[in-house]
Design a protein that fits this description.
The complex is a heterodimer of chains A (247) and B (249). With 247 residues, chain A is an alpha/beta fold. Chain A has a single domain (6-86, 127-246), classed as 3-Layer(aba) Sandwich (Rossmann fold). Chain A is 39% helix and 27% strand. A 9-stranded mixed beta sheet of chain A has the order 5-4-6-7-3-8-9-10-11, with helices on both faces. Chain A has a two-stranded antiparallel sheet with strand order 1-2. Chain B has 249 residues and is of the alpha/beta class. Chain B has one domain (8-247): P-loop containing nucleotide triphosphate hydrolases (Rossmann fold). Chain B contains 9 helices and 12 strands. In chain B, strands 3, 4, 5, 6, 7, 8, 9, 10, 11 and 12 form a 10-stranded mixed beta sheet that branches. A two-stranded antiparallel ribbon of chain B has the order 1-2. In chain B, a hairpin with a 2-residue loop joins strand 10 (225-231) and strand 11. Classes of the chains: A alpha/beta (247), B alpha/beta (249).
Chain lengths: 247, 249
C-alpha cells in the first residue's frame, strides 16, 4: 500500500489519532465555542509548519505583535507570514466609519469641505479576494491558517464565502499543502455550517463543559474523510507548550 | 413686519429687482422652479455672482453637476470675474462629496440623515458667513426623502435656520413639463417664502424663456409674465407682448 504523506498538526496525540498527521492536500475545519482555545490551536498548527513549509496566517481579530508574542510565550516558532485582515479592514472600512460618525455628530470641519472625500484610484477592497489572491501566490510545500472564518461570514454572503473556500481547498489539494479554518461553533444556520463541513476533509471541535470544579475541555474528531472509525473525543488541557491532549 | 420695510437682497439682474420692488427680502427661501432648459441654473448663478461682486459671500451647492463644469459655463459671461472664486467670495460645494463624508451615499434618507444634512448646510453658511445660497437642485435631495412629511420637515427646518442667519436662499426645483403646481412634490411650494416660475413660450416659431414671480413674502411684486433672455452680458428681462403666444407644456 502506498504510504500517505502527512504533516503534523502540532499536537502529537492528535496526529496519532488521525493518520499519523494530516495527509497533504487536506483542509481542516476547527469549530470551537468561545474561550476554548481555537486561536491557540491555530498558532500551534501554524508553528508545526514553520521551517519546513511556507506558512501563511490570516487573522481577523489579533494584532501581529500579539500573535508573535503569544507564540513565543508558548515556545512556538514564529517564522510565518501574517496577513492581518482585521487591521486592513480597520484602515479601509472601520476608520472611515469612525470619521463619518464624528462628522455626523459634529459636522464636517470647514477645512475639510473642499478636500476630496476619496483619494483617486481608491477602490473598495474585497477581503475574500484579498485572501484567495495571497493563497494563489503560495509555493508548495505550504500551510494556510485562517483565523477566523467568522469575519468573512459576517461581512459577505454565504455563497461568496463558500466559493472562496472552495478555491482555497482546490489550491491546497492540487499543490499538496494543508489548510486550517477556524470558526465559532453553534452560531450559524445549518446551510452555512453544512456547506463548510462538506468542504472540510477533517472536522475538529473544541468544547467546554462547565462543572463545579471548573471547565472540562474536549477536542472532538468529528469527521475524517473516508475514515469514520477515527472519530473520537479527547480531553485536553493548556500547558506551557500550548494545548495538550490527555490520553 | 410692514410691507416694504424689510431689507432687500438685490438680485443684480436687470429688470428683476424692479419686479420685486427692490429685490428679494433678505432671509427669504425662494423656489426657482421650471422644467429643463428654462434657465434656472443660469439665473441662480447670476444671482450669486452679483452678490459676490457686491461683497456678499455667495455659495453654490451643486447636487447634479460638478463645480468645474459649472465654472466652464460661467467664463463666457462678461460680468464674471475669476477673482471672485480665488478670493472665495463665490464658493462652490459639491454635495456628493458631502454625502460621502457624512455617510449619506444611500437612496433613502432617514429623519436623522435629513437633520444631519440640514445642520451641515447651516454650519457652512454660519462659519463661512454666507449671505447668498443656491441649492441646485432641491428636487434631487427630495428624491431621497421618502414622504411628503420628510420633505416638509427638510425645507422648513432648512428655511428657518437660514432665515435666522439672514441668508437669502434660492432652491432650484425641477418641474416636469406636464406637472400641475409649482414643484415636483407639491410640498416645496407651500413652504417656500417665494416662488419664481420659469417657463418656455412659443411665439411665431420662436421659443422664448419666461419668468413670473408667483409669490414673494415680504414685498409687493408684479405677477406678470416676462420674457427672459440669456445673453453674454447676463439675463435680460422684458415685458411679454402677448400676441400670438402659445404656452409650451
Amino acid at each position: 500500500m502506498m504510504e500517505i504523506k502527512t504533516v503534523s498538526t502540532g499536537l502529537p496525540i492528535l496526529d496519532e489519532s488521525l493518520m499519523n498527521g494530516v495527509p497533504l492536500g487536506y483542509t481542516i475545519l476547527l469549530s470551537a465555542s468561545p474561550g476554548s482555545g481555537s486561536e491557540l490551536f491555530a498558532k500551534q498548527f501554524a508553528a508545526a509548519g514553520v521551517g519546513k513549509e511556507n506558512v501563511i496566517y490570516f487573522t481577523s481579530t489579533e494584532r501581529n505583535e500579539d500573535i508573535i508574542s503569544t507564540m513565543k510565550s508558548f515556545g512556538l516558532g514564529t517564522n510565518l507570514k501574517i496577513i492581518n485582515i482585521g487591521a486592513e479592514y480597520y484602515h479601509k472600512v472601520l476608520e472611515k466609519e469612525l470619521i463619518i460618525s464624528k462628522y455626523r455628530e459634529e459636522g464636517i470641519p470647514i477645512g475639510e469641505i473642499f478636500t476630496p472625500a476619496r483619494k483617486k484610484k481608491e477602490r473598495e477592497v474585497n477581503f475574500l479576494t484579498r485572501m484567495t489572491y495571497e493563497v494563489s501566490k503560495l509555493k508548495p510545500p505550504f500551510r494556510i491558517v485562517v483565523d477566523s472564518l467568522d469575519f468573512f461570514l459576517n461581512n459577505y454572503e454565504r455563497i461568496k464565502v463558500l466559493s472562496a473556500l472552495r478555491t482555497i481547498k482546490a489550491h491546497t489539494q492540487y499543490y499538496g499543502g494543508v489548510s486550517l479554518f477556524t470558526m465559532l461553533k453553534d452560531v450559524y444556520d445549518t446551510e452555512t455550517v453544512s456547506g463548510i463541513e462538506q468542504l472540510a476533509d477533517i472536522i475538529l471541535e473544541l468544547e467546554m463543559l462547565r462543572t463545579p470544579k471548573g471547565f472540562l475541555k474536549y477536542i472532538v474528531i468529528k469527521k475524517v474523510r473516508n475514515h469514520p472509525e477515527k472519530a473520537g473525543i479527547f480531553k485536553y488541557t493548556v500547558k506551557e507548550h500550548g494545548i495538550e491532549i490527555v490520553k | 413686519m410692514v410691507d416694504g420695510s424689510r431689507e432687500r437682497c438685490k438680485t443684480g439682474i436687470a429688470g428683476m429687482d424692479s419686479i420685486l420692488d427692490g429685490g428679494i427680502p433678505r432671509g427669504n427661501t425662494v423656489l426657482i422652479t421650471g422644467s429643463c432648459g428654462t434657465g434656472k441654473t443660469t439665473l441662480s448663478l447670476e444671482f450669486l455672482v452679483h452678490g459676490a461682486i457686491m461683497g456678499e459671500r455667495s455659495m453654490y451647492i451643486s447636487v447634479t453637476e460638478v463645480p468645474e463644469k459649472l465654472l466652464e459655463n460661467m467664463i463666457d459671461y462678461e460680468f464674471f470675474d475669476k477673482k471672485l472664486i480665488d478670493e472665495k467670495k463665490l464658493i462652490f460645494v459639491d454635495l456628493q462629496e458631502i454625502y460621502v463624508k457624512l455617510g449619506l451615499e444611500k437612496l433613502e434618507f432617514t429623519l436623522e440623515d435629513i437633520n444631519i444634512l440640514v445642520e451641515q448646510i447651516v454650519k457652512m453658511v454660519k462659519e463661512l458667513g454666507v449671505e447668498r445660497l443656491v441649492i441646485d437642485s432641491i428636487t434631487s435631495i427630495c428624491y431621497r426623502l421618502t414622504s411628503k412629511e420628510e420633505i416638509r420637515e427638510f425645507i422648513l427646518h432648512l428655511g428657518k435656520e437660514l432665515s435666522e442667519l439672514g441668508c437669502t436662499t434660492l432652491l432650484v426645483s425641477e418641474l416636469l413639463p406636464s406637472a400641475a403646481g409649482y414643484s415636483q412634490y407639491g410640498v416645496e411650494e407651500a413652504i417656500a417664502d417665494g416662488i419664481i416660475l420659469l417657463g418656455n413660450l412659443e411665439r411665431r416659431g420662436d421659443l422664448l424663456r419666461t419668468l413670473q414671480v408667483i409669490k414673494m413674502r415680504g414685498t409687493t411684486h408684479s405677477r406678470a409674465k416676462y420674457v427672459m433672455d440669456l445673453t453674454s452680458i447676463g439675463i435680460l428681462i422684458a415685458p411679454l407682448l402677448k400676441g400670438g403666444s402659445v404656452e409650451v407644456t
